[in-house]
Amino acid sequence: MLKILLLGSLGLLLGLLVVSSSGLGIRTLAPKRPVAIACTTQPYAKVAGKGKARNHGSITTNGDPGIGKPIAPNGDPGLEKMPVDLETDYALSALPPHLRAGATVYLLDPAKGYYIARQGSNGFATFVCRTNWEWGEFRSDMGTAMSYDPEGVRTILPLYLDVAALRASGKYTASAIKDTMIARIKAGYYKGPGRPGMSYMLAPLMRVYIGDPTDKTVMTVSMPHYMFYAPYLSKEDVGTDSIPFPQLINAQVVVLGGKEKAFEGYIIVPAIESEAAKYRKDGADLMKRLLAYKPYYKVEDM
Asked: Which of 138, 159, 183, 238 is most buried (most C-beta within 10 Å)?
């Protein structure tokens, strides 16, 4: 159980985002601001209108793969829209209880991208990540509740919004999206956190890649934890390469081929066991609902 939890932490930390499968006809989108991109320089509340999905085109989603449904021409098996109440509760579970009431909640419309379902007041934002662009593949069985403080909302969240919008457009393969994000980061299109901050990931479970982008193994694990921003760093910089925790993860270092532009790095600190146990106990009903919704939400060794 402990080994699985440790692996799960590394995977989530290294990607923090859930992603897509590469296809043919790869091309890189220009790192200029395209129509499908949300504003990445404005405060969170201005990224999208309250309760409205941004119009990024449309795609016919085909549900889960492996059940006889067709694959889109771009290699996407399609994302299913989660029940609103379930997605909302799952997203909010990433935050500690005292921040949930005032947080902004993003929900995913698979045909358009993320939209603000509830405008918050405390600057924090939360969502369920369904695509990790660094892995360069489209999957329909990913889902991890994530949250950001105001600085993360300003600087890191836009990557997730943009990837979701590009995938929802149905125009690009997973490899094309990966190449595009790499080009944008290298060109300085996105900016890393300008101050210390934190991403809370306290949900009772998460479905994540368990390694860096060279490993496409996926697992559902339970590991409530905290992620402190550590941009432009590698494990060697902080000496965490040979210890389980705290651990530094930065998937961008792998896909960019170096740390100079890799701003989405985190130092991961698991919640202490008594605290983690409380989050699991308080989230027991949510875990049952997620499992009833999709069997892949069954936590390994639980």
From this structure: 138
Q: Are 266 and 13 in contact (CB under 8 A)?
A: yes
| Residue located via tokens 């059940």 | 67
CB-CB contact of 146 with 133 (8 Å): no
**Short-list 213, 244, 221, CA closest to 18:** 213
Token representation of residue 56: 């990024």
Decide: helix, strand or coil at residue 13.
Answer: helix
Distance (Å, rounded) from C-alpha 158 to C-alpha 21?
21
Q: What is the pLDDT of residue 302?
A: 60
Question: How far is Cα 221 from Cα 142, in angstroms, rounded to an integer?
Answer: 12
Where helices occur in 93-156 by DSSP H, the ranges are 97-100, 150-155
What pLDDT was estimated at residue 117?
98
Give the Cα-Cα-Cα angle 50, 51, 55 (nearest 5 degrees). 95
CB atoms within 10 A of CB 72: 16
What distance in Å separates the CA atoms of residue 127 and residue 261, rounded to the nearest whole number? Answer: 25
Containing H/E element for 141? none
Give the separation between CA 45 and CA 183, rounded to whole angstroms. Answer: 27
Amino acid at 48: A
Residue whose token pair is 């081929």? 257
Cα→Cα distances 43→93, 109, 115, 221, 289, Å: 23, 22, 15, 33, 33
Residue where the block lists tokens 């969240």:
157
pLDDT tens, position by position, 67-117: 334 568 889 999 999 999 999 999 999 999 999 999 999 999 999 999 999
Q: CA 83 → CA 86, 203, 247, 293, distances in Å?
A: 5, 18, 34, 9
| Residue showing tokens 């509760």 | 89
> What pairing do the DSSP bridges indicate for beta strands 198-201 and 113-118?
unpaired
